[in-house]
What we know:
It is a single chain. This protein is an alpha+beta fold. Helices cover 34% and strands 23% of the residues. The protein has a domain at 35-179: Apoptosis, Tumor Necrosis Factor Receptor Associated Protein 2, Chain A (Sandwich). The chain has helices at residues 2-6, 11-23, 51-54, 131-134, 154-159, 196-206, 225-231, 233-240, 269-281, 288-291, 303-313, 317-328, 336-345, 349-361, 363-366, 370-378, 392-396, 404-410; strands spanning 33-49, 63-64, 68-70, 73-80, 91-98, 105-113, 123-125, 137-139, 145-153, 167-183, 212-216, 219-223, 250-252, 259-264. The strands form three sheets. Strands 1, 6, 7, 8 and 10 form a five-stranded antiparallel sheet that branches. Strands 2, 3, 4, 5 and 9 form a five-stranded antiparallel sheet that branches. The protein is elongated, with a radius of gyration of 37 Å.
Amino acid sequence: MEDDNAGGGDASPLHATSGAAQRDVIAASPTSSRSVTQTVNGSHRFVIQGFSLVKGMGVGNHIASETFTVGGYQWAIYFYPDGKNPEDSVYVSVFIALASEGTNVRALFGLTLLDQSDKGEHKVHSPFDRSLESGSYTLNSRGSMWGYKRFFRRTALERSDFLKDDCLKINCTVGVVVSTMDYAKPHSIHVPESDICYHFGALLDNQDGVDVIFDVEGEKFHAHKLVFAARSSFFRSKFFDHESDEEKNEVDTSNNEIKEVVIIDDMEPKVFKAVLNFMYRDNLVGHDELSASSSDCSIFDTSAGKLLAAADKYDLPRLRLICESYLCEHVSVNSVATILALADRHHATELKSVCLKFAAENLAAVIRTDGFDYLKDKWPSLRSEPVAGCEDEECSRGGKSQSVWGQLSDGDGGDTSGRRVRPRV
């Protein structure tokens, strides 16, 4: 009877429910993963000085190299001058040993006995080239070793070019096998580039919360003390290091708001405006701000020169580098001397190095320029300035002098046409 009831009409609703469930199934997105196995490689050179003294120390006795790290494990080279085992006593044996704790450490090894005759005929024992065929070696515990019991017959070694001045040199290469799992993430969220400079620029444009006024030749610029203090150690000291303030700034009380007034008397309004934009936006609007100058004016009077001076005075290293990069592109035979003087005055070390190297490479042409005469007259401090890039070995062999004056006075060659030559940085 139970069998009859089991086959009754109650089964139909179950089948209907099952079909509905099947229709509601949502297929899952496909996933993937990838196992990446590779070697972390490292090498160590073991120099054995005094081979004749270690020979005869006995079968099974070895000298060990300093331990070295590859793939997170410590390793050492063991050299057996009289062989590792009695049956190998006419050979030298060389092994690489696991010198730290570890189990199932898989690795590839290589041993090279260096030819010291400069012929390059080294004796190489390396399974790296055969790794795809034979696979890696597994070391199961600390002290486990891989190597050669009959690395080299001792009498042959003593007559070979591998032994020089009673010294052997062995290079060891270890490649520890590591595996990582790389899997595709089903979703990702893009993070846009930082727009903090935009927001600070808007703060300047809107002038919300301004609390300081800069007076530049009568033109007023409103700003925020905290922004200037954050960007410049000069202004941080000026606004907040009250103990060092010898002179108090003026105070503007118009519009029922108290604002400190700072007089800037060493900068033109357009130059200060560029500095102001840099303070908030961390860049210049364009190179127009650097090149907006008369073509026949001194480099010191160009916008780039004035901004470099401002960056130096107000301790704005990034602005200084922007100016240095721009001026670097304009280094030529005719301009290098005055740009060098500008760089020296305003501590532009990168630009100064470029100018010195450029001058050393174009000596004869540079000393014929008016700028060089100006440099000698106005900047005697550069007489002993070393030329970056002059190798000690070259100078010791009687090469060109390392000083600016020596390089520019003794050298020959260079671009005598006065055309612009792109500096090699």
